[in-house]
Write a structure and sequence with these properties.
- Helices cover about 45% and strands about 15% of the residues.
- The protein is of the alpha/beta class.
- α3 runs parallel beside α4, α5 crosses α7 and α7 packs across α11.
Length: about 325
């Protein structure tokens, strides 16, 4: 198949590009900074020659949007909104004007669309969307509005010949440097991976292998459209999530952090506490109903695989540095 990945140079895009290319698919990445023959330049906001890559493609998986790993200032929040809405709108325009539109358009969304709470899990049918819950920072509601507008822009795009799926993705865990798992593992290795603000908030996640398999599954399943949760069926409280990760790496303790300590740490890392403190208890209702089987349904097994791969990557980097140094 020919698969187009707008915004395919980020962490998730790199995972998909690598796996889909290895599986023998023709992958075209739309990026502001093309470096490889399969990269095509675009600006994420206006139609241009890049739209020719969409014409005749089998599938489009739009991943474009400003990274959420930043301080949630008004300027950055607006950039998150604009980059997601503009790129989704222009992808829809490219599909609408294509002579041979793709059969399916998978649009990245986020599990952040669900409300912050600690009780019932959120599936697509009964999950509670966020934005009105009390006791949380006001700007968390803006994050929910970003997700809603992201999905609304795709839903309203006039593409009658293209099936549309919104991927409400949880945190994608891979051992790649710079990703969320890499950050969490670094905290655990430093002894800082303890409960944050009590640790009762739920962490929803998906192993990178299952993320790729779910994307391939949704491309193939012509009967599935609309919002789909991409999350492992085993979300768990943050304190347990980090306990498993520490045990898997071999770290005996993890220092706890209060809310203000988390805020100070996020400030130093130029990130935001929503990523640590919001409770995301998301489960994959539609994927399970459609017969998707997770290779990594539980965090303990997934963490073991990710740690093994992270250790192997570090060992490989060490051997390469040794060869270069001894050159």
């Amino acid at each position: 198949m020919k698969i187009v990945l707008p915004g395919g140079t980020g962490q998730v895009g790199t995972i998909l590009d690598r796996a889909l290319s290895a599986a023998g698919h023709e992958v075209v990445v739309l990026t502001r900074r093309p470096r490889r023959p399969q990269d095509v330049a675009w600006d994420g906001a206006t139609l241009g020659p890049w739209a020719e890559a969409v014409d005749g493609a089998d599938a489009v998986v739009n991943l474009a949007g400003r990274s959420v790993s930043c301080r949630y200032t008004p300027e950055n929040l607006r950039a998150m909104m604009d980059s997601r809405v503009d790129s989704t709108r222009v992808v829809g325009e490219a599909i609408a004007t294509a002579r041979r539109p793709p059969k399916v358009w998978l649009q990245m969304s986020t599990a952040t669309v669900y409300a912050h709470h600690f009780d019932a899990a959120n599936d697509e049918a009964t999950g509670v969307l966020g934005g009105t819950e009390g006791g949380v920072p006001d700007y968390w509601a803006y994050s929910v509005e970003i997700a809603k507008n992201w999905e609304r822009t795709q839903a309203e795009a006039p593409t009658p010949d293209t099936r549309k799926v919104a991927l409400r993705a949880a945190m994608v865990m891979s051992p790649d440097r710079g990703g969320v798992f890499d950050v969490l593992l670094r905290l655990a290795r430093l002894g800082l991976g303890g409960p944050v603000a009590g640790g009762g908030q739920y962490v929803s996640w998906i192993h990178d292998e299952d993320f790729v398999r779910a994307v391939e599954f949704l491309i193939a399943r012509e009967d599935v459209a609309g919002a789909v949760n991409l999350a492992a069926p085993g979300p768990l409280p943050q304190r347990e999530f980090m306990r498993v990760l520490r045990r898997t790496w071999g770290v005996p303790v993890g220092l706890p952090a209060t809310r203000w300590m988390a805020e100070a740490g996020a400030f130093v890392l130029r990130s935001d506490t929503e990523l640590l403190l919001k409770s995301r208890r998301v489960v994959p209702g539609r994927l399970r109903d459609a017969g998707f089987a997770f290779a990594w349904p539980g965090w303990e097994g997934a963490a073991g695989d990710l740690v093994r791969r992270a250790r192997a990557a570090r060992a490989g980097s060490g051997r390469l540095r040794a060869r270069v140094g001894g050159g």
